[in-house]
């Protein structure tokens, strides 16, 4: 959003305590030159034109007022590129207008950086444009680093996702905002480009995919590809340029398809659809040498759903079909609203042409996803203006008590649920990336007729926690399609699953369940129970063979295929209780370290488990009548932590990083440096800190080393700990 905002010669202004400004006075002086009241300034004429193409009856007066406020409040601010800052909200708004966003979204888009970067307040946005626009602007406004420090970015995304749960248009604006920033990222330092591109790759692109906004997703993929893999990008670009310079082999197939459909009396548009850079790269990785037809696909657009199947029948009759390539996403839409028929046929010259068949409406949704739905919160399903929608609260319910919002899919509901149990910013950030990496979803049926949406690869453990929540702690097995199955059984799309619960509700999960859990909901719940019942966990794990040692325990923050952060492990437990000879353990759910405010609870076996005061487990313990134990930190505040630094390769990089670590009073226990890949180097350090409170400062010092673009907790257990 405002990463590139600068205000030469002016000191940064905090939002707190800002004096109210006269918006009407700003409006009078906002425009350069006279502009009649009944037309928009030339600066947003192209936005209005794109908007009217999708919404001919849209009221443009509210856009006029929003532009006046945005231009006047950003006046004097410049982007790093040297352009006036107002060009950024205009570009973001144009992106959304071209995708068919309704007026309320465009109004909020024009204003999306005003509260963050200028003296405009949310109250003023609410007064001038209504509650709905205010909600959208607030949803995309970043949290300040001065308040949140290193946690500002993950907590900003958490805030944004929670807001998206009530109004999906928040994320639409964020995606368009990131796309324009990525388009103009060349003015940034290389390490900052890489850092932003990595977050885009891990978080924003998966969100664009899940919301079905393919037009934004594909361009973001190409921009990230160019930054993180420049050599592969250059090679792919050369292949596409060479293919473009020659005759397109699919042209003959497209002409033949159009002719066949005309003879069959089917009205259809047939067009060549080129693949984007990442798509071409993936095909090359899959097939090796590329064929001429691999650089694009044919797109057939028709009026009705039935016409899609009529086209499919004609193609499979008049051409030789490649049956293995057929997919029906109309009868079974993807979880991101996508619908289309996919097939492949052999053309007259032996070229294999991939064909996409969809209606015009399906094509609009395939490109724009949730943006194409207009305003899903309007009671009549239409897209009201910002002013007429001002009185409707986001996330309103329909008269039958169900949400009127069709864009709150299962994956988003699950994400909003598990994030409440992940108060630690690092845990949230790592779990979010792991969750979004699971890019396919399945639907399984419950025996009571309901359904569960789960990520591909989910097991009966995940289904149990999705259906029963914490009550699934007593699960002893399941029935899958009527047959008894173990909890580790992987579920398939369309399976019927019935988790079986033990009569003894006091029983709990085994640590082995973490080997099978794929959803954050299940992993966080299991981890919380095991940390609260360490004695039961040890009993379930059993003892080591005589003369041996226990095997490695599963990481409790993530599934084995994508383990979560190692976290900080104290060399010796430094929390103490006023009970002699009592075993004290630090809870893994909230990873308390000095100087956190903590409390403890006695668990099975007489041990005391220590939690942060704000940990959700504390509230649950107190709700069931558990008496807290007074806990304090002892003198031993040392901790070990494993950090991964990603950087561009350069001379003296290792020496500079080591110097930054030493300057933060941390000792290097072990270090590994992976071989460079495309001029990028990954360093892994296991460090001993004299005080856990110094970790954020250490990570900032490492990030400040020239060439370093990311420093994060290790995503695998460190052997040195």
Short description:
With 721 residues, this protein is an alpha+beta fold. Helices cover 40% and strands 15% of the residues.
What does this structure look like?
The protein has 721 residues and is α+β, with helices and mostly antiparallel strands. Strands 1, 2, 3, 4, 5 and 6 form a six-stranded mixed sheet that branches. The protein has a five-stranded mixed sheet with strand order 8-7-11-9-10. The chain starts with 22 loop residues before the first helix and ends in an 8-residue tail after the last strand.
Oligomer type: single chain
The coarse overall form would be globular
Low-confidence stretches: 1-40, 379-407, 537-573, 715-721
The number of helical elements comes to 26
Q: Look at the helices and sheets and give the structural class.
A: alpha+beta
Give average pLDDT, whole number.
77
Radius of gyration: 28 Å
Helical amount: 25-40%
Largest sheet properties: 6 strands, mixed
Number of strands: 21
Q: What distance lies between the first and last C-alpha atoms, to the nearest angstrom? A: 40 Å
% residues in beta strands:
15-25%
